[in-house]
UniProtKB/TrEMBL annotation:
This is DNA repair protein RecN. May be involved in recombinational repair of damaged DNA. InterPro entries: DNA_recomb/repair_RecN, P-loop_NTPase, RecF/RecN/SMC_N. SUPFAM superfamilies: P-loop containing nucleoside triphosphate hydrolases. Pfam families: SMC_N. It comes from the Bacteria. Residues 155-185, 335-362 form a coiled coil. Residues 2-506 form the RecF/RecN/SMC N-terminal domain.
Length: 550
């Protein structure tokens, strides 16, 4: 339960520190006095998002700190799982800086908002008027039934299986679509692959083929040029080789006369040797050169095939064609493997479907047993709240859809009076009836919940008189097992509290501030009398207030 709350620089509150006790606490105050500010501060401690509008003084940080006694609520496992220091008296602090950034701490350890929100689920339930309207929502109605049915562990297991099932279904759908798309292109891809495979492409062969083609295609002119070159080189009287030898012999005679002559002689000797080698190479090339029309045709055909494939696939090299061939092979191989993968997924989905159906059946059976229990308890409580003829008819409608909480839908039907037909709760219940039904629901759930603290924010909307007295008594009964706060405008409910806080707003200079004060017994009498008669308190109002408190 929450044992204390301190607020600094938040909204209209400059500084506030208040202690809370167990049991039933009342919070009253005029409209606009700041009751929503107190709830807002508690909401920040529980992990709601904040902004700079929360700061009273925009130059200073806002600090909200709440202390909770959690010794009886088995939360050590949560603290261990989140690597937090456990304390029976746990302190949660929220800071909002002038820069707009916020920080959160649990027992002085920094935490993120998600961790704060997760812990808050075990600490406080703030019931607002909006929640009363949510009673019409099917998911909320299911949660009420499942709380009575003690279904949450089964539903958690169901949701875990459902997550796996949906993941497998998603993969299967994606794979089947991919297979269908690939199937349309399979024939064409197979043709392309076979075309590339039959081409027997080799890396680096294109330049070699182009060179060979040039040689074969120009064999006559090459032969003519080689023969002419050999004739010029080797002609007996005027050939280049003959003349080089003549020069070399002439220089040899004078080589010993000077280093310069020796140098020139050596150079001409080298040239002679090199030229002789070139001449022999030309002779060798000439002898190997053949006019081969068939080979020329083969080379021409292979090159034309490569050029056609490059044009078709919009690439410039054989290596790129080889890569395309590999990619096409992988695509077709992947397509072949899809059938096996699809088969595995279909078996997994079948298995998960069976598990889901079994868990959904368990959830359904527990709900069937819980519905009359919930209905009877609601009728018993509501009959004391001025609804003696109320009836409920909760119908579970089977479905083939796997919802987050089972495999069925719910019709929560309601009739407030004799002779009236059942109708959907959200359509036929008035605001006052919804408030009373929600209080009854909360009173029932309190028996099944270990939640330490419940705050009712004006749950008394639309009721008065004896009904308000009974609502106060129900909240008082609930406070025997949990800490209850009620923000109310009704004196009948305010008088039932074990402690009473008043929120007030006042002007200090040019500033407006809100305060929260614990009232003494005499102050409670005055506050309740004022709630009965307004600002001008009459003697009868005071006497009535005393009677209510007694």
């Amino acid at each position: 339960m929450i044992t204390s709350l301190s607020i600094k620089n938040y909204a209209l509150i400059e500084k506030l520190a208040i202690d809370f006790s167990k049991g039933f606490s009342i919070i009253t105050g005029e409209t606009g006095a700041g009751k929503s500010i107190i709830l807002g501060a508690i909401g920040l401690v529980l992990g709601k998002r904040a902004d700079l509008t929360s700061l009273k003084n925009k130059e200073e940080k806002c600090v909200i700190e709440a202390q909770f006694d959690i010794s009886k609520y088995d939360l050590k496992e949560f603290f261990t799982a989140n690597d937090l220091d456990y304390e029976d008296e746990t302190i949660i602090r929220r800071e909002i800086l002038p820069s707009g950034k916020s920080r959160a701490f649990i027992n002085d350890s920094p935490v993120n908002l998600q961790e704060l929100q997760d812990l808050s689920l075990f600490l406080i339930d703030i019931h607002s008027q909006q929640q009363t309207q949510e009673l019409s929502d099917e998911n909320v109605q299911f949660k009420i039934i499942d709380a009575i049915a003690v279904n949450f562990e089964t539903i958690a297991n169901y949701q875990q299986v459902l997550k796996t099932y949906r993941s497998a279904k998603s993969k299967l759908n994606e794979l089947q679509k991919k297979q269908a798309d690939a199937g349309k292109e399979q024939e064409y891809n197979t043709f392309l692959l076979n075309e590339l495979v039959s081409a027997k492409l080799k890396s680096g062969e294109q330049p070699e083929l182009e060179t060979e083609y040039e040689k074969l295609n120009n064999v006559e002119i090459i032969k003519e040029s080689l023969d002419k070159s050999l004739a010029i080189a080797n002609e007996e009287q005027y050939g280049v080789f003959h003349n080089l030898n003549e020069i070399k012999n002439a220089l040899q005679k004078i080589a010993t006369f000077s280093p310069d002559y020796e140098n020139v002689f050596q150079r001409i000797s080298s040239i002679t040797i090199e030229f002789d080698d070139v001449s022999k190479e030309l002779q060798n090339i000439s002898e190997k050169l053949l006019n081969d029309p068939e080979q020329l045709q083969l080379v021409s055909q292979k090159l034309q095939l490569i050029y056609n494939l490059q044009k078709k696939h919009q690439v410039n090299s054989v290596d790129e064609l080889i890569q395309i061939q590999a990619d096409l092979g992988n695509v077709l191989l992947e397509l072949d493997g899809m059938d096996e993968e699809i088969g595995i997924l279909e078996k997994e989905i079948e298995q998960k479907t069976d598990e889901l159906d079994k868990l959904a059946a368990v959830i359904h059976e527990k709900r069937i047993k819980a519905i009359p229990v919930l209905s009877d308890q609601l009728i018993a409580i509501l009959s004391t709240l001025g609804m003696p003829n109320v009836r409920f008819n909760m119908e579970l409608l089977p479905s083939e859809t796997y919802f987050q909480n089972g495999k069925e839908e719910l019709q929560f039907l309601f009739s407030a009076n004799k002779g009236t037909d059942f109708g959907l709760l959200k359509k036929v219940a008035s605001g006052g009836e919804m408030s009373r039904i929600m209080l009854a629901v909360k009173a029932i759930l309190a028996k099944y919940s270990k939640l330490p603290t419940l705050i009712f924010d004006e749950i008394d909307t639309g009721v008065s008189g004896e009904i308000a007295i009974r609502m106060g008594e129900i909240m008082k009964e609930m406070s025997s097992s949990m800490q209850i706060f009620a923000i109310t405008h009704l004196p009948q409910i305010a008088a039932k509290g074990d402690s009473h806080f008043r929120v007030s707003k006042s002007s200090v200079g040019n500033d407006t501030v809100s305060e929260l004060k614990l009232l003494s017994q005499d102050e409670r009498v005055t506050e309740i009398a004022q709630m009965l008669s307004g600002a001008n308190i009459s003697d009868s109002a005071l006497n009535h207030a005393k009677e209510l408190l007694n």
